[in-house]
Amino acid sequence: MISFNDLKIYATSISNDLNSKQTIKERGWFKHIPLGFLAYGLTYFVLSFTFDGVPIFIQQLITTFLVYVGCILFEWAQQGSRFIDELERFESNKDAIVGVPPFIILILILKITRIIK
C-alpha cells in the first residue's frame, strides 16, 4: 500500500507521465482511466442502494476506498507468483492510482493549477 509520505512522489510522477502520449500508451492508462470510471460508477450505484440515508460525501469516500482496493488487488493479481522489484512496484502502484477517478481528477487539477509539475 501507499503511505501518505509517498503521495507527492506518486502525484508528481503521474503528472510527468501525463505529459507524454507515448507514456500513456505504454502504461495502458488509456484503458485504466475509462475502466476506473466504469468501476467507480458501478460501485457507487450499488452502494447507493446499500447505504440508503448515508451522506453523499461518505458514499464517495467508501466508493473511492473500494475502487482503490480493487485496483491494488488487480495489480497484485497481474504479478502472479513472481516477485517484482521496487521500481516495478512503484509503476504498479501508479497504475492503481490512475484507475481511481477521484485520484486522477485531483492530480489533473493540481497539474493544471501548477501545484505539481
Give helix and strand order, one letter per element, not per position: HHHHHH
Helix content: over 70%
| Integer-rounded radius of gyration | 15 Å
Give the overall pLDDT as a whole number: 87
Summing up helix and strand content along with how strands pair, one would put the structural category as mainly alpha
> Could you say how many structural domains there are in total?
1
Strand content: under 5%
Distance between the first and last residues' Cα? 24 Å
Poorly predicted runs of 5 or more residues: none
**What is the count of DSSP helices, taking H or I runs of 4+ residues?**
6
For the biggest sheet, the summary is: none
β-strand number: 0
Overall geometric form: globular
What is this structure's SSE topology?
Elements: H1 7-17, H2 21-27, H3 29-50, H4 56-79, H5 86-98, H6 101-112
Q: Can you describe what's shown?
A:
By secondary structure, the protein is an all-alpha fold. It has one domain. It has helices at 7-17, 21-27, 29-50, 56-79, 86-98, 101-112. Helix 3 crosses helix 4. The longest helix is centred in the middle third of the chain and has 24 residues, at 56-79. The model has no long low-confidence stretch (mean pLDDT 87).
Summarize the structure.
It contains six helices and no strands. The protein has 117 residues and is mainly α. The longest helix is centred in the middle third of the chain and has 24 residues, at 56-79.
